[in-house]
Amino acid sequence: MEHVFFCTGHELKIPNIVKSEGLYLYDEQGKGYMDLESGVWCTSIGHNNVEINRIIKNQIDSLMHAGFCYSNEILENSAKSILEIAGLNNGKSVFLCSGSEAIEVSRQMAKHLTEKNVSLTLHDSYLGAYSSITDRSRNWYLLNWEQCKTCPDKETCDLSCEVLQKIPKEVSEFIFEPGSSSGFVRFPPKSLINNIVKIVRDNGGKIVANEVTTGIGRTGKWFGYQHYDINPDFIAVGKGVGNGYPVSIALINEPTTKQLERKSFHYSQSHQNDPLGASIVYAVIQYIEENSLILKAGKNGLLLHQHLESLVDNKIVLEVRGRGLMYAVDIKNEKITNSIYNDLIEKGYIVGNRSASFRIDPPLTITKTEIDGFIEELRESLSLF
Q: Among 65, 213, 327, 344, which lies 20 to 30 A Cα-Cα from 182?
């Protein structure tokens, strides 16, 4: 069968998926695949979730789309809900369509308010698909924190450190991706991030937390930045907040909201503040809260971490890094990684393939039994080398 859609450079691995349920995808032959990548980190509470489907059907029958200048009850309730879990009471939110867009809108607002033109991020961060973000040849400062990993003072991090002293005063915003590191799962020292935030804020810049990948319980807390005890001015949320539906949100804290009221910012997008997307966001948050999935993600994450650590032999499996239900497993080389990846798919397990690393990001609904079963199959695949 020849496929006419364009896979944008990615190899097609399963040609005809016909249905999904919970952790599983099923092909036309009825074969099930445990999706430990959560649909590229999007299906936070499982595929084809009955409760979310019910909300979608009800919302379609009442109000699916209105326009960016019209509000309704579901928008207000959803906005209050997402702002509350982020700790941004009295802030504001803008519902959008993708994580890339939420980050870009936050950048634009920061530059508008600060009248500065340099964006700051860590050298290994991924901030989206827009060219304004991927092209870092102009108006970007990339802070390389490689030497900070082995710094003897990394727990305290001296503000006089040359890495910090080089941060430009013209920084409009520091965009912090708290842990994903372009898919390789690395966690910068807390003291380093706290010092960067202080320097940027003291110079009049804003703080943007990129929670597209790390948010909605992925790291064992609602948001990854909560591991760092910082208070962002903007939070970009996406992926898991829609459980597979394309919705994202730019959250704005109260002081920044008041600044925007005094210095109005204009942005137009046809699907801005869509009721359908907002209804899904509200339903996802309610489902996670009612089923205590943040707590369960933390507990099952510890179990998964222990299992993965037991596989480290410094020959084939070199290192494991993770928090909550977000893990990277470093393998000896890319050839072995690809072989194990293909073997797992043959066995009915989907993981993320990142060069010589695996990404493992199961839905928050995964159980101990499912974790145990996957680890046994992974162990068997590793035994072939």
A: 344
| Amino acid at residue number 172 | S
pLDDT at 4 over 80: no
* H helix or E strand, kind and range, residue 55: helix 50-60
pTM comes to 0.95
Residue whose tokens read 């109000």: 63
Q: Domains (ranges, CATH) in the chain?
A: 17-48+292-382 (3.90.1150.10), 52-290 (3.40.640.10)
Tens-place pLDDT, residues 177-218: 999 888 899 999 999 999 999 999 999 999 999 999 999 999
DSSP per residue, 92-128: EEEEES-HHHHHHHHHHHHHHHH---EEEEETT----
CB atoms within 10 A of CB 215: 32
**Distance of alpha carbon 370 from alpha carbon 100, whole angstroms:** 32
Tokens 């074969």 map to which residue?
31
The answer to whether residue 137 scores a pLDDT higher than 90 is no
56 sits in which H/E element? helix 50-60
C-alpha 280 chain-centroid distance? 17
